[in-house]
Every structure is written in structure tokens, then in C-alpha cells.
Design a protein that fits this description.
7-stranded antiparallel β-sheet, alpha+beta, Alpha-Beta Plaits, 19% strand, binds D-malate, 4 domains, binds zinc ion, 5-stranded antiparallel β-sheet, Uridine Diphospho-n-acetylenolpyruvylglucosamine Reductase, domain 2, binds flavin-adenine dinucleotide, Uridine Diphospho-n-acetylenolpyruvylglucosamine Reductase, domain 3
């Protein structure tokens, strides 16, 4: 795009949203041009901040008229580089930060309608104020947005009980690439009137259209929640404990998170104020959360009975049940700070795999062994949502080795891990999405038929290829 064309586009965009909402100065656009881990860098023609669905539609009409590619961005907390523009200077970033209204809460119908730019925590708080629960929870909840959660089909720490964003959404409002508005904000739990279009947009990572609002499911607030940390001899034991906990607690089991031993020194180094509760090093630690419809005494009895039986049988080595809200928060902080602790430790190779629970321990042992052969001393600091079969199987450089040089081996390390994931029928992205990080890896593991169907949908809904080109699918 020449300078004169760029000026025409910028003027047209200013006409849609007002000059103040079209950012072009480097100081204003810098934060939008790279992801939070600073792994991906781009250069947008402009960052455009519409304040309503109608303004989003107007922006998209300009984009279509001038063939300008568009990258949607919410809180920019994504893990796969999906929200970062490319370096061409031709793409615009469409920031949803001004689409920040909660439009409606219907407590009797257990639904809440929020615009795409509402921060997840604000939705949780609005639900709580209405005496209800919006259960999506993840460590970035103070900055990620509902639009980003939908576009990535976010998971987090309560999927085991409530499901991921796909399960929590009853309807969406979408602006198509050519600027039409689809009002699909239904609050219905049953609706068999044809294709379920909302599910196409959920998880589409900005490649099909802009999600501008959603109708979300609410739930009753549990009367009590109780958290415990348990140390175990092996991952096999943790998988077995998951089955035990499910039987003992049923739907009350809301989180079952796992932390491997190599994560602990990272926490201690980068978050020295956090107190690790066990004196001994243990191979595996799980964080269990129980939500109880009765009261805290009932929850405590259940959790302590489970822990006691496991300790007596020697299947759990040590354990602690939180005694207060402060202790609960302290236990959760150990889990929630892991992502940042790893980022602070230096560049590393991230994996977001999902395998059947029955295959989990063998996969970790096999992939770990192969990694040690390929890169002796590499630290495999895995953690994640064991209750969903989802591990963040992250690989850090051997101590003392240059992190950047190690990360340059990403393709080789990915192959080694992802081939083993594929061999046990798993997924190379459980919850973070493909973005640009896993686009080519996905093309390697998906069947030609499935890829062709995805390309067909993309061509039907975004015929000019303007939405996030180069993300999710190879162009
Ligand atoms: P962004 O990063 O801005 O965008 C993500 C993708 O969505 C991009 O492809 C973007 O183009 C697209 N997009 C954004 N808004 C829209 C829209 N309105 N319409 C269309 N496309 C859009 N994720 C999990 O699933 N589970 C976790 O447990 C988890 N833990 C995390 C912990 C930390 C500390 C951090 C930093 C991140 C974590 N994440 C997790 C990843 C991230 O928070 C989620 O992917 C989140 O859903 C992204 O929301 P966002 O608003 O920041 O989206
Ligand atoms: C988390 O579960 O904390 C994030 O999804 C993980 C990550 O950093 O890989
Ligand atoms: Zn996660």
C-alpha cells in the first residue's frame, strides 16, 4: 500500500470512529504491535478502537472496500501470537477495548450479555453481584477479554466442572468481514434451527469475523469452596487420584491442577514471597478444589476424608487443606504464577497438549526421555489442567545454556513432542489455539480432509481473506 492509499484508508477509518480512536503514533501503537511475551512483533498501519457494534461494522466496510487485512485484539494475553499484526504495515489492529459494556443480566434465565472488550474479571464480578457465578477462570482474568476468550475458546482451571468457553456460551453477536451484523445473542439452552453458527466463531481466533458481544451462561454460586495441595510419588498416581476424587466428589470437583517438580525452583527463584508448603521435594503436586452446595463443614469432611485415606494408603505423600481464604489464595498463587515464572526464567518452548488421561503418564515419560536424549539437561517443567488431560509441557534450556539458542531448536523439539501426542490420539493445542505459533504444526497433524473443510469455511465466510491472514490456516 502506497502512502497516498494509506492516507485514504486512515481518513475513512477516522470517519468511522473519530480521529482520536485511530492510533498511528509509534508510542501509541507499540503495545498492540507485540504480544505480552514479546515473542511476536509486527507493525500495524493503525490501531482502530471502535466504541460500538455499528462502528465495528463501519470499520469492516472500510477494510473490505480497501482490501485492508484486520487483526482483532482484546487483552493481548494470548499465547499463540494470534493478536499480533504482521510486519507489512498494511494490516490494522481492531482493538475491542472500548466495547466494554455489560448489556444485560437475566438472573432468572441465568444469562449475562457482555460486549467483547469486557475484561473477564468484570464479568465474574457482575455475575457475583447478581448472586450468580460465571465460572471461566484463568490467571490472566484481570486483563483478558470475553472476545479473546471466545475467539480462543479459552479453558482455564474450571473446565473439569463447567467446560470451556464453547460450553459457556449461548449466543454471539458478530460483524462479518464485509460489515454485516449478525445478532445471534440468544439466551436459549435449546435451539435446533439449523447450523450452530456461534460454534464456528468460537475458537476461530479472529479469522472469520469480529465477535462484538456474547450471551453467557451463569450458574449458582457454590455455598463453599475448599482447596487442597497434595504431593504424590508419580503422575500415574495423580491420574489415579483424579478418578478417586471424581468418585468421591462428583460434580463438586471443580479443579484438578498439576505441578511437576521442575516448576518449583522457578517459582522460588522468581516469586520468593510465595511459600511452598512442603519441606521435601516431591515428583508431582496436585491442587484440588471442591465446590460444595451445602457448607464448608461438609466440604472439609469430604476433602479431609479423601486426603486421609490416600495418606494412609501411602498413595499421597503429604497434603495440606486450606484453613482460610488467605491460605486458599496462597495455594492458588503457586499455580497461577507458573506461567509468569517460566517467562521470567527466559525464552522456552511451550506446548499445550491434550491426551487421554489413560495415556498421560506414558506420554510424559516417553517424551521426557526423548527430550533428554535430544537435549541433555533440558528442563521439562510441565504443569496444567490434569482434570482435562491438558498439560503445558514446557521445555526450558538446560541450566547455564543460552535460552535463545535453545529456542532456535523449536521445530525439532516440537516434532519430538507432537509426534508422541499424535501417536496417542491427542491434540497439539488444548486451549491456547494455533495463531501463528502452531499454524504449521497443525497442518502437519490434521488430516487433509479436515484441513480442506476448514479452508472451505474460511473461503465462504471471509472470501477476500482479510481476517487475520496467516493465522490458524496457511494461506
Ligand atoms: P487476545 O490475546 O487479544 O487475542 C487472542 C486471539 O483472539 C487472537 O487471535 C485475536 O485476534 C482473537 N480475538 C480477540 N478478540 C476478538 C474478537 N472480539 N473477535 C474475534 N477475534 C478476537 N488461556 C487458557 O485458555 N487457559 C488458561 O489457563 C490460560 N492461562 C493464562 C495465564 C496467563 C498468565 C496468561 C498471560 C495467559 C493465559 N491464557 C490462558 C491465554 C489467554 O489469556 C487466553 O487465550 C485469553 O482467552 C485471550 O484473551 P485476550 O482478550 O487477551 O485475547
Ligand atoms: C496456564 O494454565 O497457566 C496457562 O494456560 C499456561 C501457560 O503458560 O502455558
Ligand atoms: Zn492453561
Amino acid at each position: 500500500m502506497g502512502d497516498a492509499d494509506a492516507m485514504v484508508v486512515l481518513d475513512a477509518l477516522r470517519g468511522c470512529v473519530g480521529a482520536a480512536q485511530v492510533l498511528t503514533a509509534a508510542t501509541d501503537t507499540a503495545a498492540y504491535n507485540e504480544d505480552w511475551r514479546r515473542k511476536y512483533h509486527g507493525r500495524a498501519l493503525a490501531v482502530v478502537c471502535p466504541g460500538s457494534t455499528a462502528e465495528v461494522a463501519a470499520v469492516m466496510r472500510v477494510a473490505t472496500a480497501h482490501r485492508v487485512p484486520v487483526v482483532a485484539q482484546g487483552g493481548n494475553t494470548g499465547m499463540s501470537g494470534g493478536a499480533t499484526p504482521d510486519a507489512s504495515g498494511r494490516q490494522i489492529v481492531l482493538s475491542t477495548r472500548r466495547l466494554n459494556r455489560i448489556r444485560h443480566i437475566d438472573a432468572a434465565n441465568d444469562t449475562l450479555v457482555a460486549e467483547a472488550g469486557v475484561v473477564l474479571q468484570a464479568v465474574q464480578e457482575a455475575a457475583r453481584a447478581a448472586g450468580r457465578l460465571f465460572p471461566l477462570a484463568l490467571a490472566a482474568q484481570g486483563s483478558c477479554t470475553i472476545g479473546g476468550n471466545l475467539a480462543t475458546n479459552a479453558g482455564g482451571v474450571a473446565v473439569l466442572r463447567y467446560g470451556s468457553m464453547r460450553d459457556l456460551t449461548l449466543g454471539v453477536e458478530v460483524v462479518t468481514p464485509d460489515g454485516r451484523i449478525w445478532d445471534g445473542l440468544r439466551g436459549l439452552r435449546k435451539d435446533n434451527t439449523g447450523y450452530d453458527l456461534k460454534q464456528l466463531y468460537i475458537g476461530s481466533e479472529g479469522t472469520l469475523g469480529i465477535i462484538t458481544a456474547a450471551s453467557l451462561k451463569l450458574f449458582p454460586q457454590p455455598r463453599a469452596t475448599l482447596t487442597a495441595l497434595m504431593a504424590l510419588p508419580s503422575l500415574d498416581d495423580a491420574v489415579r487420584l483424579l478418578a478417586e476424587a471424581r468418585s468421591a466428589m462428583g460434580a463438586g470437583l471443580t479443579a484438578f491442577e498439576v505441578i511437576s517438580a521442575p516448576c518449583v525452583p522457578l517459582l522460588q527463584r522468581h516469586f520468593p514471597a510465595l511459600r511452598w508448603p512442603f519441606a521435601e521435594p516431591h515428583p508431582v503436586v496436585v491442587l484440588v478444589e471442591l465446590s460444595d452446595p451445602e457448607d464448608e463443614a461438609h466440604a472439609r469432611a469430604l476433602l479431609e476424608r479423601l486426603l486421609g485415606a490416600e495418606l494412609d494408603a501411602g498413595r499421597v505423600l503429604d497434603g495440606v487443606v486450606a484453613e482460610s481464604l488467605q491460605q486458599t489464595q496462597a495455594l492458588w498463587a503457586l499455580r497461577e504464577c507458573l506461567s509468569e515464572a517460566q517467562a521470567l526464567e527466559g525464552a522456552h518452548i511451550k506446548h499445550d497438549i491434550c491426551v487421554p488421561a489413560s495415556a498421560m503418564a506414558a506420554f510424559v515419560a516417553d517424551a521426557g526421555q526423548a527430550l533428554q536424549q535430544a537435549a541433555p539437561g533440558a528442563r521439562v517443567a510441565w504443569f496444567g489442567h490434569l482434570g482435562d488431560g491438558n498439560l503445558h509441557f514446557n521445555v526450558l534450556a538446560p541450566p547455564g545454556q543460552d535460552a535463545a539458542a535453545f529456542v532456535a531448536r523449536q521445530d525439532e523439539i516440537n516434532r519430538l513432542v507432537h509426534d508422541r501426542v499424535a501417536a496417542c490420539g491427542g491434540s497439539i493445542s488444548a486451549e491456547h489455539g494455533l495463531g501463528q505459533l502452531r499454524r504449521d504444526e497443525n497442518a502437519r497433524y490434521k488430516s487433509p480432509v479436515e484441513l480442506a473443510l476448514m479452508h472451505t469455511l474460511k473461503a465462504a465466510l471471509d472470501p477476500l481473506g482479510l481476517m487475520a491472514p496467516g493465522k490458524v490456516l496457511q494461506t
